[in-house]
C-alpha cells in the first residue's frame, strides 16, 4: 500500500509538472512563429483602428507593438486580429490570440469564470452617456424613460441597469451586436430608437468622431462606473503574464524617469541606479522575464514611454483630446503607478 501511494504521488507530481511546463509555452510559441497575435477592436479611434490602407494605430495597438519590440526588437512583428465584444474572450481562450488589447474592463467574473488574467491597467475609464444637444438634457438624471443604445456583450448594460435602478428611473436598453450598428442607429435617429448612446467615456469621445455632425452631440457629465481597461491573457502562463504586466510597468517607469524615445540613447550613460536597472545596464531584469537585457530600450526607442503613447493616440492634442486625469503618473496626482524594477 505504501509503494502504491508513492507511485500515485509521483505520477500526480509528474503530471502536474508536465501541465505546468505546457502552460509556460506562450513566449516560445510566439518566438517560433515570429510575431505576436494581438486581439483588438473592430475600429475604435484612439485605441485600435485601421486606416484606409489597413494600418492600425491607437493606444492598445501601441501596447501590442511594445510587446513585439520587447521580444523581437521589431514593433512590426505583431498581427492584429479585429474582434467583436462578443467574440473577444473566446478568441483568447481558444488560443487564436496571445493577448487581448481591446479596451476590455477587468472584472471579477472575467478574471475567474473565464479563465483569464488581467496583468495591468493601461487606461482608467468610466461609463457615461452621449445625447443630441437638441434633446436639451444636461444630466443623466434627466434620462428617465429614454431609450439607450449600446453594444451587447459588454459591461455597459449591467452598469446602466444599476444606475437607473439606483435612481428609480425607467429606461429601455437597445443592444446591438456591433458598436458600429449601435452608433449608426443613434446617429441617424432611426425610428427614434436611441435617445442616448452609452459606453466608456473615452469610447464616447472616439465614437463621437464618427458621427455625421459631431458638434450636435454632447457627453453628459456623469461617470456611472469604474472601467479599468487593460490587456488580458489566458490563465496559467505566469511568464507570459509577467511579460505583458512588466511591459506596461516599464513604459510607466520610463516616463517617470524621463526616459523617452528621444532621450533613451543618452540615458544609457546615466549613473542613476533606477535608470540603469530599467535600461539593462545594471542587473538582469530582462533575463528574469525570458527577454534580453535591453528589452526596455527596445520598447522606448521604437514605441515610446507611456506618456508618449498616451499623448499621440488619445491626448489633448489628438482628435480625442482626452486629458491625462486618472491616467497621469502617481507623481502628478494620477493612478498610473509601477512597482520598482529591482
UniProtKB/TrEMBL annotation:
Keyword Phosphoprotein assigned: no
Alphabetized, the UniProt keywords read: Signal, Transport
Per UniProt, residues of the Solute-binding protein family 3/N-terminal domain are 35-267
This protein's source sits in the domain of life called Bacteria
Q: Does the keyword Oxidoreductase apply?
A: no
Point out the signal peptide segment: 1-23
Mention one GO biological process in which this protein takes part, according to its record. Answer: amino acid transport
Please give the family membership noted in the entry.
Belongs to the bacterial solute-binding protein 3 family.
| Designated name of the protein | Amino acid ABC transporter substrate-binding protein
Can you name the source organism?
A: Blastochloris tepida
